[in-house]
Design goal:
Distance between the termini: 38 Å
Shape: globular
Order of helices and strands: HHHHHHHHHHHH
Mean pLDDT: 77
Number of helices: 12
Structural class: mainly alpha
Largest sheet: none
Number of domains: 1
Strand content: under 5%
Low-confidence stretches: none
Radius of gyration: 18 Å
Number of strands: 0
Length: 222
């Protein structure tokens, strides 16, 4: 009975982390990007409060990090790079420790019962820095889901934080630059990655991370 309750809680948490950002970003984003002057005219301490709030917005999956990077580039330009990196790094820790509270034991037990995961789980723990870095690098792994899964899989917090911060840099800077190039709110919403080189950069990140994870998995089999 306890296992079933835990499985339900952990499953609902993953659903929250996966789907809420897609819904909330449309609502939050329209207001934010339609009123850039409001954010550009914030005082120093108002900006501090804004970036602290950003930690909770991204860490609690109220907005995807990619969208937040687009917003930062559109509103703040290059000045937003450092606070954005700091904010998403602490947001990842928030998501990690929330998932640690849930433990994820029921979900891992269910997956182990369905699939032969023992070798894979050992491999993730043995190569946790590489796995975290590659999943963060890939455009297809949602930020909040990755936070939860890495916590569930028992990745050490230091490895998670360092590898995650480094892995998020390329895709975050790419999204931030895209936001900087947008001339209007309509342009950002209708075609957020219009430049061809940005499409190739995203594809490169996807292929590189995919081959990296394949290589790690292959070594695990040996």
């Amino acid at each position: 009975m306890k296992l079933s309750r835990n499985l339900l809680k952990e499953s609902l948490y993953l659903i929250w982390m996966g789907f809420l950002p897609l819904i909330s970003s449309s609502v939050l984003g329209y207001f934010a990007l339609s009123n850039p002057e409001f954010f550009q005219n914030l005082s120093f301490w108002d900006q501090v409060i804004f970036w602290i709030a950003a930690v909770f917005i991204m860490g609690l999956a109220l907005s995807p990090t990619t969208f937040f990077a687009l917003f930062t580039g559109y509103v703040f330009g290059f000045q937003g790079i450092l606070p954005l990196i700091i904010a998403y790094s602490f947001a990842s820790l928030l998501g990690y420790f929330l998932a640690k509270k849930l433990k994820g034991e029921a979900i891992i037990a269910l997956l182990r019962a369905k699939f032969p995961l023992d070798h894979f789980l050992e491999n993730v723990k043995a190569n946790s820095f590489s796995w975290v870095f590659l999943t963060r690098l890939s455009p297809v792994f949602p930020f909040a889901i990755t936070n939860a899964l890495m916590a569930f899989l028992g990745v050490h917090v230091k490895q998670f934080f360092l590898a995650g911060t480094l892995g998020m840099l390329p895709r975050t800077l790419l999204a931030l630059w895209t936001g900087m190039q947008a001339k209007t709110i309509q342009g950002l919403y209708q075609n957020p990655a219009s430049a061809q080189w940005q499409d190739f950069a995203s594809l490169f990140l996807l292929i590189f991370s995919g081959f990296g994870m394949f290589w790690l998995g292959k070594n695990k089999a040996k």
